[in-house]
């Protein structure tokens, strides 16, 4: 009888220690704590600017070596939110660690003053939680703080930090994809400058802006001389065939001298056009046309490179990511921890399970000893 009473008293003591005390402490803590946690929630998506026009640019993008159809950046954003970089950015704009240390919080919830950087990161990841809905490509961000306004403020600051991160991703993508096309444009611009410089040096060296104008001038002069020569030869022929040719001998001699002069002028002009000697017009035209053709080719290359660069920019702009806010950070009205009606029953059930396991183990041990 005494042993039975002793067992009952031990069971009662065990029940009080394992079940009653933890449940009472939890309820008391939930009632008197001065550092409840409030949770602000927000939802956003990471979208791109691709529309129907991006399909038309797809072929051009492939032609210039740009691969479209990047995987969603939503998981990159989630990893960033959980990273030390996001924590450091939040520390700069808000002072995360200072807020979560004393005088806020209590022994169970505050950030210890001696916490290491890894401990601060782990604490941050417990109070800032990002969940991804892969089906809808939506991130749900939950921020817990010791007061509702601060929870909302931290969530709002994190949205700005995430938006800056997305913009940085856009800038890096644009820089990486366009760098090659930009290099082509710069090379084409340099080729145009070199071609223009070579043409300018040729003009300064030869004292001619356009040798074709000089050719036209020589051809016009030759035509005029040939017309004049034809007139002189006609007059000369009439005088030589006349019956009184001796009487017109002075005139015939003058016309013959004029004919020889015109022939020399025509020959000189034709030599300037057709001669292969250095400085001849034909050689100047050949060199000028070569330099001018090089300038035109360089200008065409520059135009094509510029078009490719603009096409690359248009394609990348169509792929730019942006933050689409689905719901702004909420201002919580009720605490999320501790909740008397939620956490006390949870602790009670858990302690009852522990008590049942201990009691079962004790009974099994007692029966084993009897055997």
Automatic annotation (TrEMBL):
Membrane-crossing residue ranges in chain numbering: 12-31, 344-364
**What InterPro entries does UniProt report for this protein, alphabetically?**
Bact_polysacc_biosynth/exp
Sorted UniProt keywords:
Coiled coil, Membrane, Transmembrane, Transmembrane helix
Q: Name one GO molecular function term.
A: protein tyrosine kinase activity
Record GO cellular component, one term: plasma membrane
Superkingdom to which the source organism belongs: Bacteria
Q: Which residues form a coiled coil?
A: 171-242
**By what name is this protein known?**
Capsule biosynthesis protein
Q: Read off the lineage from the record.
A: Bacteria, Pseudomonadati, Pseudomonadota, Alphaproteobacteria, Rhodobacterales
């Amino acid at each position: 009888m005494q042993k039975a009473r002793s067992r009952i008293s031990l069971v009662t003591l065990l029940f009080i220690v394992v079940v009653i005390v933890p449940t009472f402490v939890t309820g008391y803590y939930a009632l008197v704590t001065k550092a409840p946690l409030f949770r602000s929630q927000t939802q956003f998506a990471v979208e791109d600017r691709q529309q129907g026009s991006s399909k038309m640019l797809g072929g051009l993008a492939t032609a210039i070596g740009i691969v479209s159809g990047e995987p969603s950046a939503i998981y990159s954003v989630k990893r960033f939110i959980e990273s030390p970089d996001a924590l450091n950015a939040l520390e700069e704009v808000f002072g995360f660690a200072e807020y979560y240390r004393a005088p806020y919080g209590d022994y169970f919830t505050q950030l210890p003053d001696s916490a290491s950087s890894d401990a601060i990161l782990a604490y941050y990841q417990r109070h800032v939680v990002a969940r991804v809905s892969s089906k809808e490509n939506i991130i749900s961000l939950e921020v817990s703080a010791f007061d509702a306004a601060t929870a909302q403020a931290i969530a709002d600051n994190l949205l700005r930090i995430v938006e800056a991160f997305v913009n940085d991703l856009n800038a890096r993508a644009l820089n990486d994809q366009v760098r090659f096309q930009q290099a082509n444009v710069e090379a084409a611009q340099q080729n145009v400058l070199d071609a223009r410089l070579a043409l300018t040096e040729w003009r300064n060296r030869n004292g001619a802006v356009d040798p074709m104008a000089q050719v036209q001038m020589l051809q016009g002069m030759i035509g005029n001389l040939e017309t004049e020569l034809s007139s002189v030869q006609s007059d000369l022929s009439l005088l030589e065939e006349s019956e009184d040719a001796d009487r017109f001998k002075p005139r015939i001699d003058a016309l013959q001298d004029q004919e020889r002069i015109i022939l020399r002028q025509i020959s000189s002009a034709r030599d300037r056009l057709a001669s292969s000697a250095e400085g001849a017009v034909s050689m100047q035209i050949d060199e000028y046309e070569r330099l001018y053709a090089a300038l035109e080719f360089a200008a065409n290359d520059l135009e094509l490179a510029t078009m490719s660069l603009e096409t690359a920019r248009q394609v990348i702009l169509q792929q730019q990511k942006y933050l689409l806010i689905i719901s702004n950070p909420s201002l919580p009205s009720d605490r999320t921890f501790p909740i008397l009606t939620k956490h006390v029953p949870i602790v009670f059930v858990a302690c009852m399970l522990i008590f049942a396991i201990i009691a079962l183990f004790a009974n099994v041990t007692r029966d084993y000893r009897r055997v």
